[in-house]
Each structure stands twice: as structure tokens, then as C-alpha cells.
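Hi R.,

Here's the chain you asked about this morning:
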Amino acid sequence: MKNSPLTPAELQADALLLLPAWVLLADGPQSDHAVVVSNGKFAAVGPADELVAQYPHLTPLSLPDKLVMPGFIDAHHHLTQSFGKALAFGEPSEIYRRIWVPLENCLDENLVYLSARLAALEALRGGFTTVCDAGTRASGDASTIASATQEVGVRCVLGLICNDLADDIDARARAAIVARAQRHLARWDGHALVHPSLAVSVPEAGSDGMLQAAAAMCADAGAVFQTHANEHLASVERSIVRRKMRPIEHLHHAGALGPQTLIAHATLVTPSELNLLARTGAAVSYNPVASSWKGNAVAPALQMAALGIRFGLGTDGTRSDAFRLVDAAETAQRFAFGLATGDSSCGAGELWLDRALRGGADALRLSARIGEIAQGKAADFLLVDLDVPEMRPSWDLTWELVRLANRSQIDAVFVAGKLRLWQGWPTDWDAHAFLREVDEVAREVVAQAPIQRVHVAPTLQPLTRTTLPTVE
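And the predicted structure, written out as C-alpha cells:
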């Protein structure tokens, strides 16, 4: 058994027998367990002594003070908005109208690729092995985003927007959208790392026929139908004025609410809408950081859990840091609901880890493939260093992962059994050179995009090595 310091080369073998201090399983952290990785999947998970005896041809890799845990799942992302980032900070809600749509409309195919690649790298660095992209408004084919995510190595649920309520659209144009959606679902069906999805940006952007058709196509394909609903007061009020229904009620009326439906945000929900979600089996992406940065409310995730509503956790493209996301998920519930009711647990660490892992897989209809360390599932996992001051002494590893862990502890990120990052950086391509390229192109596209900001910073020039202030 090898006990010397681990190297990336050892983690790139065709088959691995890992003996960490802890393995995070569906029923909690387990010690004295081993994991066998082969052909991109978990070949075996169980007591260490048994697996060492069962696999004598594999050299056990001893990983003292390490945790093997499933990769986190980002249930809601916008991969082609990564050039914007701080441009949206401090801005009023519905920033998509003034920042994201203008920015994405200025992205050509190469810029879409670079933006998605940057977002995918950020996601892996933050511990996410799967990201669900809600679809881009940039022109071109979604395959450009798929190429970027595959090259970086993150698993991607790839959304294709099917909005059909443009002013000049006719029946032929609507038929073309449906045909394009069908091709998208067929093209990526069964792909190793890309899982197709259809989306309507918000219910008001789709006709009732398109909402129903997109949802039905996803139901038949085993895919998810995505939409943003009940996120901001303005959008809820527009729906009430135009349709005499709230957005989630509108989705139900159109026949687009079901187990295939993934609703981003759902922060402003009535009791009757919660009942609709529970009865139809629709899923929600609870995005706590988005609420704190630009939202009007916090989704009642604890109540959703109590009602049996399916939900995962999403970043909404805010920051790709999984440990900070689970902390924010618990903290937001405490501030919004727990303090007023004297709920000192707010779901405890177990709920938020579960929703960030198995809950996300369920919301994306990928439970058969990802979300936990179990035999036969895809080997999407993290190697986390527990030999740090933040984790000592350890009394309750689950709570500690939610409140104390951080991404600097992630030694390695694996997707489909392949080492994608070692200590935060790829081992097979020059990410630093890529970031320098991003600096150049982002400067240009932001300068030309008709972005409207309420709070204008003194400069929109990104800091680089040449513009950082010197200290004498």
C-alpha cells in the first residue's frame, strides 16, 4: 500500500483503488471505506479490507486526511455570461434586460466558446462536476458551448432556448423552433458528458403552445424543460397583468408543469403555487446567492422540502464556489425564515449537502448517473483535504463541510473517472495562457455591448498584471 505523497500521475491510471480517511455516501460520511474507479464509473464502493482483497491487481492509494465525495451539481447556470461578472454587482433586479441580453447579443461563435470555457473552468475549480446551462441568447449553435465544456471536462446539461413570442414570428418560424429543438434533443441523446435540455427564458417569452410542446418533448426524451419563474416582482406583476395568472400558474395552465420541468428561482411563491409544484412533481433550482445579490426574496426551500418538492442548488452564474453555495443555502433560510420561527437547525448540514448532490441530480433527471458515490454511477467526484485548521477538531463532518470547508481544500476534481483538475488547475492544458486571452477579448466585447448600468464604476478596464497598483 502506497503512503508517500500523492502525485497527479498516480491519479491518471486507467483504474484506481482509493483508500481515503472518509467517503461521503448517501447516508453520510463513512470511514474505513474504499472506492474503485474504472471505465469512468464507480466499479465498487465498500469496506476497505474487502475491496483490497477483491482487487489484488490494483495498488491501493492510501489517502490519509482526505475525503472522497461526489462532485457538486450546479442546477442553474448561464455559461455565456462569464465576461460580465462584477458588471451586475449592485444593480437592481432584472439585470438580464440591461446587462446580460446586450452582452450575449454581442458574442460571436468564438466569444461564446471562450465565455463558456471560462465558466466551465470556474465551475470545476469550485467543486462542480455538473453544470446546468439555461441556454444562451447569443447567436449560433449550442454545440459551441458543448465543445467548450467537453474540452474543460465538466458535465453539462445543455439548454436550448425556444422562445417564440417575437413580434414578427409566424407559424413557419414556430415550426422551425420546434424542429431545431427536436434536433438538439436527438443530437446529444446518450452523450457521455452533454445532456440536452430545452428552455423558454420566462413563461411570458413563450406561447402556450410552445411551452406545452417544449415540455412534452423533454418529457418524452427524459430531459429537463427549463424556465425562470417567480423570480422578481416585476415579472410576476407582468404575468398577472397580461395573463391574469402568476408565472407558475401560467405554466400549469399551458400544460408545461410536470416532473420534467425545472424552475429557476421560484422565490415569490404563494401557497397555491407550492401546492402546484408538489402535485405536478416539478423541480426547482434554489439559488440563494442570486437572491442576496439581486433578488427580491428567498425561495422557501425548507417549506419545499417539507412538502416533498424536488429541488437542487444553483449558482445562477453568480460565483462558482460549491462550498460557499451550500453555506449560503443554509444561511439564507436562517435569515429569511429560521430566525423568525426559532428554527436553530434550518435543515441541518445533511439537507443542504443532499440538495447540492442528490437533489441536483434528481432535479436534472440524472439520478441514474450522478449525485452520489455508488456502484455503477459515473465517477464524478472530489478529493478534499481535511488536514487543515478549519476542519480540526472534527465533531460533525457534514455540518463542517457546509459551514467551514472551502474550495482551497479541493485537491483533485474528477469527471467520468478522469482527473480534470489538480489543486485548482488543469494538468493537460495551459489555463493561465487562456486567462490572458480572456482578458483581451472581454475588454473589447464589454466596450461594444450596449450595457446600461445604474451604478457605474470609475472604469470598466479589468485589472491585469500591468494595471495593478504598485506598493512602495
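Confidence is low (pLDDT under 50) at residues 465-472.

Let me know if you need anything else.
M.
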